[in-house]
Amino acid sequence: MAAKNDSPGSFSLPGGHTLLSGQRLESIEVAFETFGKLDAQGSNAVLIFHALSGDSHVANGPDVTGRPRDGWWADLVGPGRAIDTTRYFVVCANVIGGCSGTTGPGSIDPATGASYGTRFPLVTIEDMADIQAALLDSLGIARLLAVVGGSMGGMQALAFAQRFPDRCASVLAIATTWRLGAQAIAFNEVGRTAILGDPAFLGGDYYGSGQPESGLAIARMIGHITYLSDDSMREKFGRRLREREGHAFEFVSEFEVESYLAYQGRKFVERFDANTYLYMTKAMDYFDLSAGFPDLVDAVRGIDARFLVLSFSSDWLFPTYQARELVDALQAAGSEVSFAEIESPYGHDAFLLEPAEQTRFIAPFLASVYADGRDTRGDDAR
Predict the structure, then answer these.
(1) Mind listing the pLDDT tens digit for each residue in 191-238?
(2) pTM for this structure?
(3) pLDDT reading at 269 higher than 90
(4) Nearest-angstrom CA–CA distance, 127 and 148
(5) Of 198, 315, 344, 349, which is the active-site residue?
(6) What is the pLDDT of residues 141-184, one digit of tens each?
(7) Rounded to whole angstroms, how far apart are CA atoms 13 and 256?
(8) Beta-strand pair 17-18/24-25
(9) Nearest to 121 by CA among 247, 255, 28, 214
């Protein structure tokens, strides 16, 4: 079932914005979509942040172009789903630096009339949160029922809660971390190196000639390996060959897993921008919720929200121990925290592939937060 998309469109940030780096963008467009209806008290709004390669189209229905399309989290967001769009007002926007309608390196620089390319300033997870706070202002939403995100989206949810502690009643941080470990940063660097080393990259000014397809495809292949687990790859591919009974003794793709990765690389090139990949992975590398604080406990102490933190047993990119570090810090700071490690063979992709397991935790958690909010508003709010 489709979630009614009430307001697909674009928001122009008035007066520009100064980024965390100190650089300034004078013109910013934000592509966003909303699903459901805001209640009379404005108390049922849920802001969902997308992961690295996502966009604003979180639920099924027409997207910002008017084209019917499956939402990237449609099994969790929509009528009757864990994040029920008949009950909650869902907002999802493409991030700053993105390539799906929000200003990014592929956008036209008003000062030059040409695409920014790598002249676009580096953005951070905090910048993404700040821009979406401005979007909420334009929608007249002062306080959210929840901020929600998986992977890079979870980082944004944490950053939003830290930067705007009075603007959200709850935080749902799923398959995410308060800062990347060395291994995840290393994989991001290998992917960026593949893009930067592609002769078609042209210093980032490839928009008139076609993007660096080989480099971007390799980056996606590397990234995709980190999203899976040994169990899921063994179950899905094993050592099976595509066509031959024996080996070809040539440098060609023979194993099913090789063909699968090549396919993922080709499909990614068709829908994503290489420069945006560089910017998103760098933003993830920079993110550290404890930056500027003595420790993580102090960093989360001022957040006035309930937390639901979910991790997955086979996720080695955003491992459970990092989620536990966050949970321990939140508890030490006095926050109300619910935590679960979900058993799953799917690795990091589990946050997209395990909707039923997540629904068991998300639906009652959101319902409880919403009910608590209604109780505090009194009978006239019912």
Answers:
(1) 999 999 999 999 999 999 999 999 999 999 999 999 999 999 999 999
(2) 0.94
(3) yes
(4) 17
(5) 315
(6) 999 999 999 999 999 999 999 999 999 999 999 999 999 999 99
(7) 47
(8) antiparallel
(9) 28
Our answer to whether residue 151 is catalytic in this structure is: yes
Q: What size, in residues, is the chain? A: 382
**Which residue, 305, 382, 324, is CA-closest to 47?**
305
Angle, to 10 degrees, between the axis of helix 125-139 and the axis of helix 152-163?
A: 70
**Coil/strand/helix, residue 149:** strand
Domain boundaries, the chain: 9-179+288-381, 184-283
Q: 323: part of which helix (H) or strand (E)?
A: helix 320-332
The Cα–Cα gap between 32 and 29 comes to 10
Q: Assess whether 84 carries a catalytic annotation.
A: no
Question: Quick one: DSSP state of residue 237?
Answer: T
Selecting among 17, 50, 57, 348, the annotated active-site residue is: 348
CA 304 to each of CA 63, 147, 162, 174, 300: distance values in angstroms, whole numbers, following the listed order: 33, 13, 9, 19, 9
Answer whether 127's CB lies under 8 Å from 154's CB.
no
- Quick one: fold of 184-283? Rna Polymerase Sigma Factor; Chain: A (1.10.1740)
Q: Look up 315 and say whether it is catalytic.
A: yes
The active-site residue out of 151, 311, 335, 344 is 151
* Range 9-179+288-381 has CATH code 3.40.50.1820: yes
